[in-house]
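Work package 3, deliverable 3.1, input record:
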Amino acid sequence: MSLPAPALEIHGLSKAFDRPVVDNLELTVRAGEFYALLGPNGAGKTTILRMVAGLTPPDGGSISICGIDTARDPVAAKRIVAWVSDEPMVYDRLTPLEYLEFVAGLWQIEAGEAERRAHELIGWLGLAPHANERCGGFSKGMLQKVALAGALVHEPQLIILDEPLTGLDAGSARQVKDVLKQKVASGVTVIMTTHILEVAERMAERIGVLARGRLIAEGTLAELRTRIGRETTLEEIFLDLVAEGTDAQSAAA
Amino acid sequence: MRTPGSLTWFAGHEFRLAWRDWFAMVTAGRRTRGIVIALFLVVLAGAFHLMASVFIAPWAAKGIVADKSTLVLITGGGFLFWTVMLSQALESVTRAYYARSDLDLILSSPASARRLFAVRTGATGILTLLLSLLIASPLVNVLVVYDGPHWLAAYGVLAALSALSTALAVLITLGLFATLGPRRTRLVAQVVAAIVGAGFVIGIQAAAIFAYGNMSRFEILQSDAFVDTMPDLSSPLWLPARAAMGDLTSLIVVAVVGFGAFAAIVALASVSFGRFAIAAGAVSRTHVHQSRPVTFRPATQKQTLRRKEWKLLARDPWLLSQTLMQILYLVPPALLLWVNFGSEVGVFIVVVPVLVMASGQLAGGLAWLAISGEDAHDLVVTAPLPPRLVLEAKIEAVLGTLAVILLPIIVLIAFNSLAMAAITAACAALSAGSATAIQLWFRTPMRRSMFRRRQVASRMATISEAFVSIMWAGVAALLAGGGWIALMALLPALIAIGILFAAWLLSPKGKAV
């Protein structure tokens, strides 16, 4: 029996703006995995995820989602991917339900099925009392939940989240984390960047650490601990790895 | 050194921001571009002075005396001009209350909100004056050259009228806040500004159409019948005109009224500024409930995108008013068409180009909203559909809206002349299509609320959009003229195509579409 294709396979990915931001990146995320991508500010996390989501064209390299080459068949790749950024982009003048109807229309989900899923997601995320209110008056946390519902309504196989918990209160963050856990339990792959290391520590099966556009360490929390030779928190591991990686890159340069 | 929080400190802060904003807008970070634009402005100023000479020289040659007919002409023309100043001031004052930017920071600081208001209202007055100088200074300068330096007093009148229009704009905004509340004030102020700016012009055109059968504003002001109905020479109505002509006493009265009203209104309104600005800031946080329950309907991807565009447009009355206010200018030609129903072709030479011009401008605004003003840009880009399909759907939404607006007028023309209806429809489609294409080539994702910034986001797009609409309007006018004149339509058509080609070459996205 053959193994399923990895949810995400990146080879030699590069991107430069005024300086190299992503440098010959190699990354593989297994199907059904919760993967946390960590790195200091400017390490290239968002650029990598935007390239995977099809929002930024890479300068070089290849990206494959569930076996689909994003350069060859971008539409097929987009059909199974959902993107949630730290800045929720929803329409002020639409209600959450209307927003989900719009997303379902773009992903061509059958109307009846989309409506059922939309109500289910709105219930899960605690948005039911606001389902028919326009998003213009919502708080950042509520907007983020609407954006997340939009990402989930078309049942993607790969969910990419860039700092999804920024600005959320404890209750909202908990709801979002619970929904993501349920999705991973049902076989969906989640890739998330976060600066809240405690979240990565508790939720991620594997963690990748980036510095200056390169993956400097990767593995489970136990593997990362073994690598630095100390039984300590992810925060300590992260700071050690980033310092080590930055020194090594500076020396190589 | 200025004391932080003082009036002069706030003024310095505002001036620095405005200067940097303007400089960045003009140069776009390139020094050579600034020089080119400065040269262009010099040439433009020269052209305006030349045009002003053509009008003023024959009048000055006959000798300009302060008789009733001259005072009526200057007062009438000046009043038309002042309504535009008032409209501009109303827009700026509304912005002072609603634009957030650094307002939250300043209002939450111990600095005086009253001083900030005084400075921002003063800035509105200066901006209004600068804009009026752009248009009026060539006329004044030419009058100074041909008729004498006493016309320099007109600059004093312009300054006083700017102050008066700013004071009135603040008064109207305060009245709206008090009666309608912060939620509706911005929209209503916008509508009032458009009606004030266009209403008097349209009204006088309507009167001219009914009385004389043409669209000239000045024809009616110069008619004996109209002049006879006006008050005699001793009336205070003529004070601004007399002041502009150099009468010192009149100038002092006009200045006292204008600047006095400004000072009084600043003192009165600054007390409530902080309160109203905070209330305006809270508007976006109010909850709006949709009464109609949502039932998911089957739709193709393009239908989904079109429906979304129409829904968003219909639900944003402020944006809608910004865009559709141009329809107001369609009222006089429609009226002219109505009055002259079944008569000669000549009327179409006036009506058809106005419609074509309006279609281009309207399509440009709507196209910006649909193509660049995408609030969920990431969502649409990551959706599983080719980018071309997204653009097609958005263009269809724009042109569909435009068709609904123009169709009734084209049908009205068709009852009169099928050929004219065909010319109007074809040229309006070309004008709208060109404006939409330019918006497509120069698209830059922005929040829809940044609609006002669209004109400064790309000056090349704005200028080419305006010129291409004018050229297609020229084509329409010449075709409507018929006979050998129609052949001349080839010239503006070729210029329009040339402008479109140049815009395509210069645009960042043109070659990518």
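Chain B has a mean pLDDT of 82.
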